[in-house]
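Section 5.1 Outputs to date
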Amino acid sequence: MSNIYGNLTSEGLEQSQDRLGGFKVYESGAYTGTIKAAYGGKSANSNAQNITVILDTEQGEYREIFWVTNKNNENFFLNKQDKSKKVPLPGFVLVDDLCLVTTNKPLSQQTTEDKIMNVYDPEVRKEIPKSVPMLVELLGKKVTFGIVKELRNKQAKNLSTGEYEDTGESREENSTDKVFHYPSNMTVVEARQGMTVSVFFDAWLQKNKGVTRDRRSIKDGSQNGKPGKPGVPPKAGEVPPKTPSLFN
């Protein structure tokens, strides 16, 4: 057993906040399931690290890749208004919260074991068996994901720059917006504040259930600035203290 994420702590980072804000596209809502797999990977072009989570729900299997570091292997970016503040990457926050609500331990304290999984290989363009570092303490744990349906532009590779860019075509996809403890529906933020009853869960559902977020940069042929690319590691520049269980 080993811990390859020991350096990815939340110490010194700005605390996350509760904000309202495979292939099946789920309607926006709360989905409870059992963690079937949670394993690490890396970008093919950089040192950026990600974690793939597979959640087995009543509605089917939900799979998502969370980027927990940028290409410099940092789990944060600097606040544009105050460069002294390190803001945790959204993907890191979600995975760290997932670890806390299921095991009461952050990502940096999770044990990993090498397991064989079918992983997509871009060279052969299909899934093939590979050895991956599995977060074994998460396996079999129940959790609730706040999943949103988003409308985004399809992307195509610019042959001149080699970069993937938005096109005028659209597609629907899912992303996790919040992680909730099961069965209390508490968030990590609420637990840290000493709350005993969840308040944010109902507010999140009221704002997001059934709502599709429009994340397109190109709408009806016009371009309004490019959002972060889904499935692409975050760019560079952009531990809770040991306590009794947050979710007794």
